[in-house]
Amino acid sequence: MSPIVIFDSGVGGLSIFDDVHQQLPWLPMVYCSDNAGFPYGSKSEAEVEERASQCLTYLQKTYRPQVMVIACNTASTVALPRARQVLSVPVIGVVPAIKTAASLSKNHCIGLLATRGTIKRPYTDQLIREFASHCEVIRIGSSELVHLVEQQLRGLPINQAYLSEILSPFFDRLQSPDHIVLGCTHFPLIKAELSISAPDVCWVDSGLAIARQVSTLVSQSETTPKQATHRAVFTQASDTIEALRPALHARGIDDVQLVAQE
């Protein structure tokens, strides 16, 4: 069966992998991390668009997937239009779940926790105007949190006090958000730790919605395989890949490959 490709600059897209696997356990997946270009949030939009397009073109040619997912908010907002032009398979992007959070909020105050680039992008402003104009939206941009998640997946514990410090601007105010959007795919991977620091908040992400989109686009198997075969692909050799193997193995990803991007 043709796989689907899940693409990110780091390992945050594993949160999307988890939701898709839960929804479609028989579906083989290729997870690609452009770790040579990580992180995307600090790069120019032109550079992100070029890197993502090159990687996705290579992945389509090599693995012939039936669907591709850009599991990165930065790359989705910047590179999705070009990807859909140059690729011959459906491409799904990830955007912050502002619409969902705004519709669920009881006190009309929501938060957006994302990278610094995402909270400043015009696309984010547009989502807020369109779906959350009736809400106060508090934005926090943190690149440090992305690195904390990357380290945790490699076996290092999260510093809970530091995490609470990052979140504190949401709550140092008269009215705090009752729903907070996880606007970076890294962040759902530490939802348990986020809930310890803010137990009264409902954390909202796009993973389930992406999994449902994938479900509508993939070919249904007539015979369900006992176990899908998954693969991880990286664009640069790194000692940190070995440290990731336990987290990958826990997801059924034991085939780890390295590809050189020109």
Question: Secondary structure elements and their pairing?
Answer:
Blueprint: E1 4-8, H1 14-23, E2 29-33, H2 45-63, E3 67-70, H3 73-86, E4 91-93, H4 98-104, E5 109-114, H5 116-120, H6 122-131, E6 136-141, H7 143-153, H8 160-167, E7 179-182, H9 191-197, E8 202-204, H10 207-217, E9 231-234, H11 239-249, E10 255-258
Parallel strand pairs: 1-2, 1-3, 2-9, 3-4, 5-6, 5-7, 7-8, 9-10
Count every beta strand, where a strand is a DSSP E run of 2 or more residues: 10
- The helix count comes to 11
Largest sheet: 6 strands, parallel
The global form is: globular
CATH architecture of the largest domain: 3-Layer(aba) Sandwich
Poorly predicted runs: none
Distance between the termini: 29 Å
Helix content: 40-55%
Number of domains: 2
Query: Do you know the CATH topology of the largest domain?
Result: Rossmann fold
Share of residues in strands:
15-25%
What is Rg?
18 Å
Calculate the mean pLDDT score and round it: 92
| Spatial order of the strands forming the largest sheet | 4-3-1-2-9-10
Give the class from helix and strand content and strand pairing. alpha/beta
